[in-house]
Design brief:
The complex is a heterodimer.
Chain A: H1 2-32, H2 50-56, H3 59-91, E1 95-97, E2 100-102, H4 107-114, H5 122-132, H6 140-147, H7 162-187, H8 191-199, H9 204-215, H10 217-231, H11 235-241, H12 255-264, H13 269-293
Chain B: H1 2-54, H2 59-63, H3 77-84, H4 88-119, H5 125-134, H6 140-153, H7 160-185, H8 189-196, H9 201-212, H10 214-229, H11 233-238, H12 249-259, H13 266-297
The chains are: A mainly alpha, B mainly alpha.
GO biological process, one term (chain A): transmembrane transport
Protein name (chain A): N-acetylglucosamine transport system permease protein
Organism (chain A): Sphaerisporangium siamense
Chain lengths: 301, 301
């Protein structure tokens, strides 16, 4: 039939490309994780779950998992709090203007500017923040601290501080996207809802906590999942920013970095794939859990 | 009678004073919120502006004690050095080539697949759709090791063709996901009329549906350009250190940085950063509306 010929001709190239470069690597990864494959010369040997039992006793692996846990809790909380505050100001903060809720003055400008970091490559952002975080007073941040009479801080070389410094960059880059995301959510709230509440004497705090927050809960939930998945990524920034690739003393390492290093520096492909599988299950578990926990009755408008 | 009038007069004036009071509250809140908004805007623009200024400084000026000082003079010498000696020119050209070709084919194959999935009923329709969409959920790091070997076994490692094919494949999930939803919203009547007039399926797609889908196509095109231009992980895996002349921009920038010792050309580094930032900033400022709506379209109904 002519219809099926057409359907086939339109699907064949994209599906083949996708199967070769996306589907097949994902499927292979699960098998490779059960072997001791170390590269081309040695034949991969099936070793069952040995890689996984080794993972359980691997300190660096657990350090990486701990860092994901810190990122998973702190990063979304801070990013979402900042983004919610700004998007409320930019969409509702200006009060009612000719029957529509408006943002404070200049909101269009802020929305464009806040998004800037989002279009910069992470590698570029990483290199840029290296100059900002330099540990002596040649660093931008320490130069600023010096102006107010404070000593230089070892942003990236202090084991207690390094991960937080990197998290700061992730937040710096991410906030703009979530401002736009939440703004879209807030724009979808009918302005009569705000009008009615304002007539009943609701102040800004009430407008925010009793109306805006519950009505954009779905969007916040989506943002939370995005940020959680980002917390499992964080590869480029750690690779470019951290001292000794994940240092100092493994204080900033993350799973993607370990996967990349185990595979392409040490040629332990089986072990690296086992980490990949672990990362996969962590990500999926997080997504499933967070969708469950944050699920709430949708408020009908 | 008189008291009654007084009461009448009192009421609005009391209301007015309450309104004034509320306005004052809003004023303080408004002022504070403007401060917060301005502070964040400075935090965002500051580092980017500082990068541009640093590209005009000299090494001692950058490595000196006053990282915040203005450059002594504005000369473009460091931009020339970065372009020629650090090969930023070549990396840029490579990136334009790779991103141009792969965005074009991503859009072509993505829209073809999405069109068929959205508007035709055939066995396997759902399976193919979910196959594509599932690619959105998996961490790329899981596929990393096998992907490297798939590309190598095809003889495409260290080639731009390899990078292009991989970019297309990994851009398909979001492209297909978004465009399937988009094609579903387009009206049937125009396409049906064209078919009645004897237009083939293929012709109907290219001459009727594609022009009708233009807004959606533009959003996703820009989204793909940004994403592929800023990609960092895939190039460092697919283009090794031995083919430096084929490197892409983010890879080149991260590398200048790791090689930068005390003898480094810091102004050159910042000129290189500026060159990587500028084109994306220009694209963003021109298309900011489409970019913002494109990025949030998947998340907000």
């Amino acid at each position: 039939m002519r219809k099926y010929g057409f359907i086939f001709s339109f699907l064949v190239v994209p599906v083949i490309l996708y199967a070769i470069f996306v589907i097949s690597p994902y499927l292979q990864a699960f098998y490779i994780s059960l072997t001791n494959w170390r590269g081309i010369s040695a034949n991969p040997q099936f070793i069952g779950f040995e890689n996984f039992t080794r993972l359980l006793g691997d300190d660096v692996f657990w350090a990486a998992v701990r860092h994901h846990a810190v990122l998973l809790v702190a990063m979304p909380l801070i990013t979402i709090a900042i983004a919610l505050f700004f998007s409320f100001l930019l969409n509702v903060g200006g009060g009612s203007k000719s029957g529509k809720m408006a943002g404070v003055r200049g909101s269009k400008f802020y929305r464009v500017v806040y998004f800037f970091p989002q279009v910069l490559a992470v590698a570029v952002v990483g290199v840029l923040f290296q100059a900002i975080y330099r540990p002596d007073n040649t660093g931008v941040l320490n130069g600023l601290l010096e102006l107010v009479g404070l000593g230089p801080v070892g942003w990236l070389i202090d084991t207690n501080l390094a991960l937080w410094s990197i998290m700061g960059v992730i937040i710096w880059q991410g906030v703009g996207f979530y401002v736009v995301l939440f703004s879209a959510g807030m724009a979808a709230i009918p302005s009569e809802v705000f009008e009615a509440a304002a007539l009943d004497g609701a102040g800004r705090f009430r407008l925010f906590f009793s109306i805006t927050l519950p009505l954009i809960w779905d969007t916040i939930q989506v943002g939370w999942v995005y940020l959680g998945i980002a917390a499992f990524d964080a590869f480029a920034l750690v690779q470019v920013l951290s001292v000794d690739r994940g240092g100092p003393d493994n204080a900033t390492t993350v799973l993607p970095l370990e996967i990349w290093r185990t595979a392409f520096t040490f040629s332990k492909f089986g072990y690296a794939s086992a980490m990949g599988v672990a990362l996969f299950f962590l990500t999926i578990t997080f997504a499933a859990l967070s969708l469950r926990v944050t699920r709430r009755e949708r408020i009908e408008v | 009678m008189a008291t009654q009038t007084d009461a009448y007069r009192m009421a609005p004036s009391r209301a007015a004073s309450r309104r004034r009071q509320k306005k004052n509250q809003l004023g303080a809140f408004g002022a504070l919120s403007h401060v917060a908004l301005i502070v964040w805007a400075v935090l965002v623009i500051g580092p980017i502006l500082w990068t541009f200024l640093a590209s005009f400084k000299t090494n001692p000026e950058i490595m000196g004690d006053a990282p915040l000082a203005m450059p002594d003079s504005f000369s473009w010498a460091s931009w020339g050095r970065a372009w020629e000696k650090a090969h930023i020119g070549r990396y840029m050209l490579n990136t334009v080539l790779v991103v141009g070709v792969s965005t074009f084919f991503t859009m072509l194959f993505g829209s073809m697949a999405a069109y068929v999935i959205a508007r035709f009923r055939f066995p396997g329709n759902r399976i193919i759709y979910y196959l594509f969409v599932s690619g959105l959920a998996f961490p790329v790091f899981l596929a990393l090791v096998p992907l490297f070997f798939v590309v190598r076994n095809l003889g495409l490692i260290d080639t731009h063709v390899g990078v292009i094919l991989v970019y297309i494949a990994y851009s398909l999930p979001f492209t297909v996901f978004f465009l399937t939803a988009f094609f579903k919203t387009l009206p049937n009547s125009v396409a049906e009329a064209a078919m009645m007039d004897g237009s083939s399926h293929t012709r109907t797609f290219f001459q009727i549906m594609v022009p009708m889908a233009k807004p959606g196509l533009i959003s996703i095109t820009i989204f793909n350009i940004l994403g592929q231009w800023n990609q960092y992980l895939l190039p460092i895996v697919l283009l090794s250190g031995s083919v430096e002349d084929k490197w892409l921009i983010t890879q080149g920038i991260a590398n200048i940085n790791t090689n930068a010792g005390y003898e480094a050309d810091w102004p050159g580094l910042f000129a290189a950063l500026s060159m990587a930032i500028l084109p994306m900033m220009i694209v963003y400022i021109i298309f900011q509306r489409q970019i913002q709506s494109g990025l949030t379209a998947g998340a907000v109904k």
